[in-house]
Amino acid sequence: MNLERVIAALAPTDVVQRAPVEISDLAxxxxxxxxxxxxxxxxGERHDGHSxxxxxxxxxxxxxxxERVLELDVAQLVVPDARRAMARAAVVFFGDPTTRLExxxxxxxxxxxxxxxxxxxxxxxxxxxxxxxxxxxSRIGGERRPAIRTTPEAIDLQRAFHEMLDxxxxxxxxxxxxxxxxxxxxxxVRFAALAFTNLGQxxxxxxxxxxxxxxxxxxxxxxxxxxxxxxxxxxxxxxxxAEELRALGHERLLTxxxxxxxxxxxxxxxxxxxxxxxxxxxxxxxxRLRGRFNVENVLAAVAVARLLGVANDEIAAGVEALxxxxxxxxxxxxxxPFAVIVDYSHKPDALENVLRTAHxxxxxxxxxxxxxxxxxxxxxRPLMGKIASDLADVAIVTSDNPRSEDPDAIIAEVLAGAxxxxxxxxxxxxxxxxxxxxxxxxxxxxxxxxxxxQGQEFADRTVPFDDREIAREALRRLGAAL
Length: 482
Description:
This protein is an alpha/beta fold. The chain has 3 domains: 3-93, MurE/MurF, N-terminal domain (Udp-n-acetylmuramoylalanyl-d-glutamate--2,6- Diaminopimelate Ligase, Chain: A, domain 1), CATH 3.40.1390; 97-321, 3-Layer(aba) Sandwich (UDP-N-acetylmuramoyl-L-alanine:D-glutamate ligase); 330-481, Protein-Tyrosine Phosphatase, Chain A (Alpha-Beta Complex), CATH 3.90.190. It has 16 helices and 24 strands. The strands form 5 sheets. The chain has an 8-stranded mixed beta sheet, sandwiched between helices. Strands 17-18-22-19-20-21 form a 6-stranded mixed beta sheet, with helices on both faces. It has a 5-stranded mixed beta sheet with strand order 1-5-4-3-2. Helix 2 (53-58) links the parallel strand 3 (37-40) and strand 4 (63-66). Helix 3 (82-93) runs parallel beside helix 5 and helix 4 (112-125) packs across helix 11 (312-321). The radius of gyration is 24 Å and the shape is globular.
């Protein structure tokens, strides 16, 4: 692409050393910068991209997008916000792929991952060749790739959409995060439908206030081309969003939830240890996902599928086909007489949902191992301590991903909100072994917080760590000792 076309798309406030150069790629990381690249000097929380501009030019960048002019002998496009400009440029450079790719988005505090997996399964059942972008993995042309971040940076996101089209994908199920909204990563994405699942305590370390957190979700529905919207009116913030969309005259709004006024709601519901049977939106559904909270995720997926025009039988087939989601209420089985469940629940609402569901399955006690991550929203720590104290028969607080913080200091903040009786074991592997070691027939052991993750993050390193593997090893040792 000629630089002049990029200039036309970005409308920079100034262009320094304008030159007739061809742009062969876009980059924001010098490690991914090669000959012919347009490099975006994006200021971040820890590093400023302007500091790496010289290295980018050395690696072959032929032009820069900057917020201030740099003393470098290269073309420079001066813009007020390099991150927002990156999104606009990526859309143009990769040919505005979401005009041709049907994108089903899911935003909210809890349920994004499971709902996108459900949508991927439904779209596959409908023959719409879906891709997937989310927390656990991406899928492009049927190929699984590890996820780097839930909602990729704008260049990576638009590149992935372009690659999906090249691989003959026709649709995509996408997790749309508040960070992705606030940081402009989702700017220029044309959603064929977008779901709002709920809003709970999380990410206030980034957004500052709950109102700003809600606003980051809300802008995806109200700014630019307003997408067809599926909104959970069983959630108070979902009700608020639905009311605002109606006031704005939103033409395609479909509500869902465990409330009578929802368009898609359980008309019949049977929950058991193998999943649920329900009737919703006139469709008979069977899901292998366990728990009431997963029924809500099914309702969200059904509502989005309806907005996309998927047939009822294809919706039902897609819901039933999904066996499970890695690290989301995932059972660890080794022939033991009690259940072991690993779940990603690292937020107050999610932990409460998982523990309540565990009680529905337990014939005896619920034993919970949990912790809170470092360098993240500290306000949720005492809330999670209270939830575990109130809802688990035995609760063991441990380390999660402490990152740069002292694990014992994090645990102290968790304990500040808890009642009496919480056990403390800062070593996560030992805490998991303790929980499994004290479990009896009919108990349910919940290992919460890390789910599918395969590493534990400390200040200076990330060590291999998978809750599921630690649990399996503890069960093997327990079986050998019996």
